[in-house]
Design goal:
By secondary structure, this protein is α+β, with helices and mostly antiparallel strands. It has three helices and seven strands; from the N terminus they run E-E-E-H-E-E-H-H-E-E. The protein is about 30% helix and about 25% strand. It comes from Streptomyces kunmingensis.
Length: about 150
């Protein structure tokens, strides 16, 4: 399992950029920040991570089945009682299989199941939770949860 490091820097009010060590960047801002568009919200990035991880893992777990047209849609559903958290995440795998191609359907279904039961680090972390620590500039732990 790899360890990761992302640096997030402020561009301006409610406008941030996250960078990885390989030089990729993504802009983060609220959906209503007109001057910071195009961007992703933090929740959209979480959903994108679930879809991306699912896709990368299905590429491996279902590699013997043709899935070039696979599309993954990830939706969040939250209610007031979810207390500021995402309540439910739905990961929808969309592909049209040739009529009567039972073998490909079985391979894809098994690959998707294995993705979420065993191999997708993002899905498994969201499902089981992770410990979160917030460290202040002086090195003290200001928050620890999970």
């Amino acid at each position: 399992m790899a360890d990761y490091r992302i640096e997030t820097v402020r561009n301006g009010e409610r406008d941030w950029t996250a960078r990885n060590e390989r030089g990729a960047e993504v802009r983060i801002a609220p959906a209503d920040a007109a001057g910071a568009q195009p961007s992703f919200t933090p929740v959209e990035l979480l959903l994108a991570a679930l879809g991306g991880c699912g896709g990368l893992v299905v590429d491996r777990t279902a590699r013997t089945a043709d899935h070039d047209d696979l599309r993954i849609v990830v939706e969040s559903v939250s209610r007031p009682e979810d207390d500021g958290r995402v309540g439910t995440v739905r990961v929808l795998y969309d592909i049209t299989l040739p009529e009567g191609d039972i073998r490909t359907a079985e391979i894809l279904e098994n690959g998707i199941r294995l993705t979420h039961e065993k191999y997708c680090t993002v899905s498994r972390t969201v499902e089981h939770g992770a410990r979160v620590e917030a460290w202040g500039p002086d090195g003290t732990v200001l928050f620890m949860g999970g």
